[in-house]
Every structure is written in structure tokens, then in C-alpha cells.
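Pilot study result, target chain (279 residues):
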Amino acid sequence: MQKAGLLLGGCVRAWKSARMASSKVTRQNPLQNKVALVTASTDGIGFAIARRLAQDGAHVVISSRKQQNVDRAVATLKGEGLSVTGTVCHVGKAKDRERLVATAVNLHGGIDILISNAAVNPFIGNLLDTTEEVWDKILDINVKAAALMTKAVVPEMEKRGGGSVVFVASIAAFAPVPGLGPYNVSKTALLGLNKNLALELAPKNIRVNCLAPGLIKTNFSSVLWMDKAREDSIKESMRISRIGKPEECAGIVAFLCSEDASYINGETVVVAGGTPSRL
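Predicted structure:
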């Protein structure tokens, strides 16, 4: 009996040791050999996401509208020993979207992850003063291009047995920022795109989720934090009264793309320092 107890105890210890070792490997490289596309990823939140995905083991293809920005970002991340390549991609152009997909497939054999981060905001003012041209530009890039970029990667994800898509929306989808009406509307639309695609792509084992950052210190959001009065007003609505950092978004995205989030689909994670976030 004592012998059986010792044997059982040894088995339990061995199982725990193996489990811990396996867990450690998984945690060190949760995205090992995954292939990720990140749009608008040479600066700010997109760059931080690309870096984190690569740190977690993924082969990352970054993109931007300007070649010099792509070259700079790739050089920086490669200098950190990360598996990163890049190409020019204006997400509003079909040929550029096709080239981005082809780059990943040709270099790495497929696509597992899409982070749709590209967005524009060429207008500040009253919603009803927005011209048709501005509406077209904002909705084309912020919403339509996100849907078309997803459409372009789905066939490649299917070949791999599934995948993960993350749209970068904004806290403005829930709590409109004064003066940014069309942008606010476009980000709310992304929440709907997220829900619909999550439903449609689930049978293909492709999960779709959303990130909704609050005020994050990037060049894109400088119109908000460079104005001290506006920054203070926004911070009043937060529980954590400070501006966020791009890296504080990147870890959440990496999690959503990992097996740890395998049962999360159609959700939006708000990273906004406690800013109220319900419609």
C-alpha cells in the first residue's frame, strides 16, 4: 500500500512538472510560427502591436503608406532580433491589399492573424458640417477597407485551419469625442462589423474581436493630448487619470490572437483607463 502511495505521488509530481514545463514553453512563445499582418504598423499602437506579436513568436508583416516608414520600422524591429518584414500598403487600394497578402504567403506560406489598425480622421467640427468627400474617405478607410482586408485573408486562414482577426476601434465608438463625429461613427460601425464577421467566420474557426483604446499617446491622437484643456477634460472621465501607452494595447491584442483566448469571439476589449464604455 505504501509502495502504491509512493508510486502515485511520484506520478503526480512528474505530471505537475511536465505541465509546468509545457505551460512555460507556451507562455514564452504563445504565437510561435504564426504569421501576422498588421496594417498601419510603423508607428503608435500598430507598431507596438507588431513588436509584441513578434516578441511572442510570430512572423510579422508590417505595412504603411510610405516606404521610408516601413524601412525604418523593419530595421528597428529586426535590430531587436525579431522576425519582421514589411511592404507598402494603402488599405484603400485593392492592389496594395493584394500585395500585403501575397507578401505574407510568399515569405511564410500563409496567414494566421490580421490586425486591422489603419484609420484616418481628416475632419474636426460639427457632424452636419461634414462634406460627402470626408464621409467617403473616413468610411472607406476606417470601415470598408477593414472588411475588404478581412475578406482577402480569410481564404489563407482557412488553409491553415483557422485564424484570428482583431479590429482596432476606439473608446469613441462608445463615448463620442466632441468634434470628431464622422470618426466616432466609423468606430461604432467597426463594432458592428466585428459582431457580424464573428458570427459568419466562426464555422471556419476564425475568431474576430475588437480593441477599443482610449486616449493613447501617439502622433495620431496628438490633437487630443497636445491641447492641455482637452486632455484634462478627457482625463476627468477616466478612473486612471493618465494617458495610456501603445504597449498597454499591444498585450491585449497578443492575448486575443493566442490560444488563451480560444473561446473569445465577437467581443470588444476596452483599454481606456476606466473611461465609461457602454452604448
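One observation from the pilot: The chain is about 50% helix and 15% strand. A full batch analysis is planned for the follow-on phase.
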